[in-house]
Amino acid sequence: MAEINLSFEEMWEKIMACDRKYDGLFFTAVKTTRIYCRPSCRSKKPKKVNVEFYDDIDTVEKAGFRACKRCQPHIDHSPYIRLVQTVVTFLVNHYKERLVLQNIADYAGVSPFYLDRIFKQETSETPRTYLEKIRVDKAAYLLKSTDCTNLEICYETGFQSPSNFYKAFRCLKQCSPSEYRKLNR
């Protein structure tokens, strides 16, 4: 599987939020307990200094960590999990690009109809809405951590128009990008 382009801070935010969107894309390993988990694990959160992130199970297990008994990151819960992980990795790594379902399906090696159906069955969302959430997550991170303008962040995160950006952001975060920046600085 391809490496995911997220910073340590972004991955830390995902595990603090127990974000299921990133399950299987990276694993959280706790140095003090020698246990690794999914990003969505509901177990007590470790201290940030004790955390390492790994892209795949083989690497984390070779480093001497064992699977969490609560979230069971070593068990695939669906026969389609690899397809979904491949698509989500592609979306996270290519969120800045103008993507249509055909591009995503071509990358995954399946038909657009099949991809849309399976992805929705597994995640309760279409690839398009999932991509929008990834873009809004990235925009929220940039609003907190940079001094870029809202317009710069809009285009940096792959939105094609400011109105689309503001609408999607407000829908998912229940506030405007400017309000979000004020609340999280």
Automatic annotation (TrEMBL):
Gene3D superfamilies: DNA Methylphosphotriester Repair Domain, Homeodomain-like. InterPro entries: Ada-like_dom_sf, Ada_DNA_repair_Zn-bd, Homeodomain-like_sf, HTH_AraC, Me-P-triester_DNA_alkyl-Trfase. Keywords: Activator, DNA-binding, Methyltransferase, Transcription, Transcription regulation, Transferase. Its cofactor is Zn(2+). One of its GO terms (molecular function) is zinc ion binding. Transmembrane segments: none annotated. It comes from the Bacteria. Residues 85-183 form the HTH araC/xylS-type domain. Pfam families: Ada_Zn_binding (PF02805), HTH_18 (PF12833). This is Adenosine deaminase. SMART domains: HTH_ARAC. GO terms for biological process: DNA repair; methylation.
